[in-house]
């Protein structure tokens, strides 16, 4: 029983560490900000998931304790990871639009407009709620 | 019943998270968690002026299962792309997905799902809230990818937020 658990923990640890490594390698080698965003956001999902399952199995097999903290970690991660990725993407879009120095364009080119009339929320402030930070500043 | 539990989903989540934090199930823990689950939704009720109705039934569980399955499968795909695809062969694209969901909560869940499933990151929402801007790492057929997101995730969310 203990041997089977050890093998399972080892496989899960190697799988998780491998995905974390591949995610980091993606961060280094992909061409620009938007593509690089894909690398580390992936390592957090499956890589971390495998490491957390390994932790649950280890504590159960070795110490006979059922732990549930790992479930909470993955829950909080699933809630926060898309938000941080979205923030980075929005900063990238804004810096491209303002021609900030040193912001590389995605190999997908500039983003298309959503429709003829409107624009993305990063660029457009609702008229009934003007944002004070945009006043007197040229966004285009 | 409605006055006692104005937000049953939030109450259930608070109790479950409290018990997971404590890492044990004891009578004291359940009572204390139960008190929080009763009091906190009452005090935070003004934060949700017109919150949407959600169904936590079979549709919700099915959605969770499909998203978890997609995360695992797509992780291997992205790992493959990172390891073996040359940069100039990457077909990175911006996708504009028209959204039929109406409540901000439902759109947030769709955007979060898209970001969690590897290979796509939701980058922005249009100012009128009717389109999502998505960056995809490698797509062969843009229209097919948009249709896949709409039929696989959005249609199911529409049933949950009915």
UniProtKB/TrEMBL annotation, chain A:
Listed GO MF terms: sodium:proton antiporter activity
Keyword Manganese: no
UniProt keyword terms in alphabetical order: Membrane, Transmembrane, Transmembrane helix
Disordered as annotated region, ranges: 99-140
Transmembrane regions listed in the UniProt entry: 6-28, 40-59, 71-89
Superkingdom in the source lineage: Bacteria
UniProt-recorded name of the protein: Na+/H+ antiporter subunit G
